[in-house]
Known about the structure:
Layout: E1 3-4, H1 7-27, E2 33-39, H2 43-59, E3 62-68, H3 74-85, E4 92-95, H4 105-111, H5 123-131, H6 139-149, E5 159-163, H7 170-179, E6 183-187, H8 194-199, E7 203-206, E8 224-227, E9 231-233, E10 236-238, H9 243-249, E11 252-253, H10 260-279
Parallel strand pairs: 1-11, 2-3, 2-4, 5-6, 5-7, 7-8, 8-11
Antiparallel strand pairs: 9-10
Helix pairs in contact: 1-10, 2-10, 6-7, 6-10
Bound molecules: 5,10-Methenyltetrahydrofolate.
Amino acid sequence: MATIIDGKRISSEIRESLRKEVELLKSQGMQPGLAVVIVGEDPASQTYVRNKAKACEDIGIYSEKYELDASITQHQLLEKIDELNSDSRIHGILVQLPLPKGIDEQAVIERISAEKDVDGFHILNAGKLLVGQKGFVPCTPAGVIEMIRRTGVSMAGKHVVVIGRSNIVGKPVSILALQENATVTICHSKTNNLHEMVKMADIVIAAVGRPQMITGDMIKDGAIVIDVGINRVDGKLVGDVNYKEAEEKASFITPVPGGVGPMTITMLLQNTVEACKRTNNI
Ligand SMILES: Nc1nc(=O)c2c([nH]1)NC[C@@H]1CN(c3ccc(C(=O)N[C@@H](CCC(=O)O)C(=O)O)cc3)C=[N+]21
């Protein structure tokens, strides 16, 4: 039976220390500020955005939320970003993805000032991550690495198998694992013998977006299993991993919900505090 890596518990520990840090910054006249922009009315997106605003409030981060109509033009959205880029109360800008069809997501991301890109999606931050310079690391990958670190198991020399190659999770988490001296294999929808690949993993990171596709028979005894998937099936949240099967084999496993999700928000808060500190040369 696996030990659960409790994302909620780890999150509240980190948020507690962030709260103290924010208090100190505020006492020195610096309050971190986050702007969240959401376009259209996807109910799932609205839930995330509400959770983010609440998380900010809990630790004393100032936050603004902009709910823009789905009919907004790309030009109008870019103007909003320009406005936030030059707003000194705002240290972090997050534009909730996906954006409606007809809006060029990459163009929108690139418009955000790299110093305020707390999502770590800007090409400059992606480049910095790749070459090992300090920038902003995407929140979900940062959360995944923090959870692995807290198992106490070193990633050095371990075989990490990542399933998924998105710019948001798969690619950046692979680079971070490599920086921890892991041996990294990136699998995806075109991978031959996915089963055999995953079976070799000391650490499995599932970020495919297909409910329960990683089954227990694919997990090596004693592996660490990190489930990044958030899939809604019959009104319930399930991961990319068949939890019941995998927990029989794994040494450590993350649950869904209560695993990587809360850690993503925590890393967003951390990046926002960091953005404020960098602006003030702290
Ligand atoms: N620019 C941008 N940045 C993002 O970081 C971003 C985004 N766009 N678009 C959507 C995805 C998704 N995402 C989640 C964050 C937290 C939970 C989370 O906290 N989930 C809870 C459950 C929440 C529930 O019950 O629905 C959990 O796993 O325990 C889920 C999903 C951030 N995203």
